[in-house]
């Protein structure tokens, strides 16, 4: 039987490849994001089994308004939505905007939706997979701190959901090509520099991260919970 899958940030990059992976496997996928044009284009690109849903996941009122459009039973929830706050400056107002923005965009976007649909997660087989970042472990200011918050939250969530047979895990990618995160900063020189930091001598692809997410959402991963699956080509080991 086809599963109901919700992928946040499903319009581009890793989220798009995650949505594609599930849809091509015959699952029913809802992709959630802030930009209607991006979501519509992603749904058309994937072609079948995908429904776009516009929602600002950092806004509790928007999340509440979106709940009727989400499946009554959710088998897989992929918390992928996130971005980096671009406010610059060293003054207290700029620091506050940067830290608050990164927390809202990367933590609240996962927590508000997950807590709102906890009762819809399928007992015995439900899966929650949250996409974090290598930045949570190697340090990256407010962005790294926000991603690290997801790790602590996931431990709590796994303990809360475990008695119902529902797993909660993290995928923490390193540098990945084909996303909006780096923009023009990821030029050839930067790709070479980042590739040299890995054991494999290259950066990752969105589809490789999607494969890790897909595994954690599978029946075969039913005895894995509260874990962080690193997908970074050996850039960071043993954590």
From TrEMBL:
Keywords assigned by UniProt, alphabetized: Oxidoreductase
InterPro entries: KR_dom (IPR057326), NAD(P)-bd_dom_sf (IPR036291), SDR_fam (IPR002347)
Domain Ketoreductase per the UniProt entry, residue ranges: 3-179
Listed GO MF terms: oxidoreductase activity
KW Protein transport (keyword) present: no
Top-level EC class: oxidoreductase
EC number: 1.1.1.-
Pfam families: adh_short_C2 (PF13561)
SMART domains hit by this protein: PKS_KR
Domain of life: Bacteria
PANTHER family per UniProt: 3-OXOACYL-[ACYL-CARRIER-PROTEIN] REDUCTASE, CHLOROPLASTIC (PTHR42760:SF40), SHORT-CHAIN DEHYDROGENASES/REDUCTASES FAMILY MEMBER (PTHR42760)
Family: Belongs to the short-chain dehydrogenases/reductases (SDR) family.
Protein name as annotated: SDR family NAD(P)-dependent oxidoreductase
Organism: Kitasatospora phosalacinea
């Amino acid at each position: 039987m086809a599963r109901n899958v919700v992928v946040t940030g499903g319009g581009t990059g890793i989220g798009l490849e995650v949505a594609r992976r599930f849809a091509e496997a015959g699952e029913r996928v809802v992709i959630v994001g802030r930009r209607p044009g991006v979501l519509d284009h992603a749904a058309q690109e994937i072609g079948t089994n995908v429904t776009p849903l516009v929602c600002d996941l950092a806004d509790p009122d928007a999340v509440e308004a979106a709940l009727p459009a989400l499946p009554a039973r959710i088998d897989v929830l992929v918390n992928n939505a996130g971005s980096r706050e671009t406010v610059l400056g060293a003054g207290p107002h700029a620091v506050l905007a940067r830290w608050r923005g990164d927390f809202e965009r990367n933590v609240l976007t996962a927590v508000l939706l997950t807590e709102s649909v906890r009762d819809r997660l399928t007992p015995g087989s439900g899966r929650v997979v949250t996409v974090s970042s290598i930045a949570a472990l190697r340090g990256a200011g407010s962005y790294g701190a926000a991603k690290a918050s997801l790790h602590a939250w996931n431990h709590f969530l796994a303990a809360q959901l475990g008695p119902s047979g529902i797993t909660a895990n993290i995928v923490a990618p390193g540098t990945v090509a084909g996303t909006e995160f780096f923009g023009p900063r990821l030029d050839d020189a930067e790709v070479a520099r980042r590739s040299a930091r890995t054991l494999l001598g290259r950066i990752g692809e969105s589809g490789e991260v999607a494969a890790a997410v897909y595994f954690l959402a599978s029946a075969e991963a039913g005895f894995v919970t509260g874990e962080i699956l690193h997908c970074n080509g050996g850039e960071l080991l043993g954590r």
